[in-house]
Write a structure and sequence with these properties.
alpha+beta; Ribonuclease Rh, Chain A; two-stranded antiparallel ribbon; about 30% helix; binds guanosine-5'-monophosphate
Length: about 230
């Protein structure tokens, strides 16, 4: 009787331990979708070069789709053996060129950027997404939730080179994202002015719903920020 009790207790403990292990082993909690204003991808930190496919449209473009943990840490390079393979994305290339172009110099067709993003970030979402579904998910989330530029323009905020109050920009962005907690990041234009650079929104780990961002990076903005034209 004693032995039976100990054995089943042991098995029970093992099961609890396995469940705990499965919980601990979760490879990410949510995604950051980071979108950049292409007019701000130039200044003291970067020079801007248009991709060889041409000047991107007047729209926020994807800067990153990052599997992340609730404490704000971002795992990277999770599977060094899972190399980028562009042929797996042939049906998505034209959408990626529009929504996820590289603005870095020298000009490129953006393939290198997608490869870096898959190997650095995408491989950390492998429990849910293979290479094709990772890029499809990023495009779908960008195109189906909020058109940032359009929503800001409704509130009279537009990329006209003028200076906007940071708090009203944050307030309007939050209401564009249905009240969810979203973040902003600034960088510096050539003259050292704080400019509106990126928007961070958060998506649940299945890629289906917007969520409140559990944590956001430092905005690095002044009280007034320039929204440059593009
Ligand atoms: P991440 O911020 O996703 O970890 O890394 C972004 C990498 O992509 C950097 O090495 C950056 O230089 C490169 N990159 C190339 N084109 C772009 C672009 O248009 N926007 C951003 N944010 N990064 C780009």
């Amino acid at each position: 009787m004693e032995t039976k009790f100990n054995c089943s207790t042991f098995i029970g403990l093992l099961m609890i331990q396995s469940v705990a292990l499965i919980c601990v082993a979760q490879d990410y909690d949510f995604f950051y979708l980071v979108q950049q204003w292409p007019g701000s991808y130039s200044g003291t930190q970067h020079s801007r070069c248009y991709p060889t496919t041409g000047k991107p449209a007047q729209s926020f473009t994807i800067s990153g789709f990052w599997p992340s943990y609730n404490n704000g840490s971002i795992p990277t390079y999770c599977d060094p053996n899972n190399h980028f393979n562009e042929t797996k994305l042939s049906d998505l290339i034209s959408y990626l060129q529009t929504d996820w172009p590289s603005l870095a110099c020298p000009s490129s067709n953006s393939t290198q950027l997608w490869g870096e993003e898959w190997e650095k970030h995408g491989t950390c979402s492998e429990s849910g997404f293979d290479q094709h579904s990772y890029f499809l998910e990023a495009l779908t989330v960008k195109d189906s939730f909020v058109d940032i530029l359009q929503m800001l323009q409704v509130d009279g905020i537009q990329p006209d080179g003028r200076v906007y109050n940071l708090n009203s920009l944050i307030y309007n962005l939050k209401s564009a994202f249905y009240g969810y907690n979203v973040g902003i990041e600034c960088n510096e234009d050539e003259s050292g002015n704080s400019q509106f650079y990126q928007v961070y929104s958060c998506i649940d780990r299945t890629g289906i719903s917007l969520i409140d961002c559990p944590v956001l990076p430092d905005a690095n903005c002044s009280d007034s920020v320039v929204f440059p034209s593009f």
